[in-house]
Design brief:
four-stranded antiparallel β-sheet, about 180 residues, five-stranded antiparallel β-sheet, mainly beta, single chain, globular
């Protein structure tokens, strides 16, 4: 429900279709990063390409990744890989440091996606060059601005890792999807 064909598209599960993506997400870079931040028993939780088209005026709203599918344990790792140079003009990530310590915040559904904050005062813009990786907790509130360029698609590859024991909790508390 959050994709808008003329503005922002999401292509999930690229590792199931691409040897290059599988090799990338299982590389020493991610193995070492996950070991240092999550521990020795980690698995790929999610991957997707996110393309933001030129002329997109709507931001992608403030949310936590754990607000879309409630995972237990709540904290997993999001790696936002810039496939093109990105800045405030074309929709780079913007994060709110420190709020990840509060766990998963209440999210409400809007036509643009789930939202957990309106206009936070301590937002930090995180520009990235193609190949840079912005790493943050699934509990870090973040969003991206619009793509105000006239001709350049902003491209990112999102890779998420969770502890091997992590499970998505469903609306029925006695059901777990692993």
């Amino acid at each position: 429900f959050i994709a808008r064909a003329d503005e922002i598209t999401f292509t999930p599960h690229l590792v199931t279709r691409s040897t290059i993506c599988r090799e990338f997400v299982s590389s020493a870079l991610f193995r070492d990063l996950c070991f240092d931040l999550l521990g020795p028993s980690v698995r790929l939780y999610w991957d997707q390409a996110v393309y933001k088209k030129p002329g997109t005026t709507s931001p992608f709203p403030w949310h936590q990744d754990n607000g879309y599918a409630f995972v237990e344990p709540q904290q997993y790792l999001t790696c936002w890989v810039a496939l093109t140079d990105t800045d405030a003009n074309n929709g780079c990530p913007v994060v709110i440091p420190g709020l990840h310590r509060n766990g998963t915040l209440a999210h409400e559904t809007t036509e643009l996606g789930f939202v957990c904050l309106d206009d936070p005062p301590n937002a930090v813009t995180v520009p990235a060059r193609a190949g840079d990786i912005v790493v943050f907790s699934s509990l870090t509130p973040h969003g991206t601005g619009g793509n105000r360029t006239t001709s350049d698609v902003r491209k990112a590859y999102i890779v998420q890792f969770a502890p091997d024991s992590a499970a998505v909790l469903t609306a029925h508390s006695d059901q777990r999807i692993t």
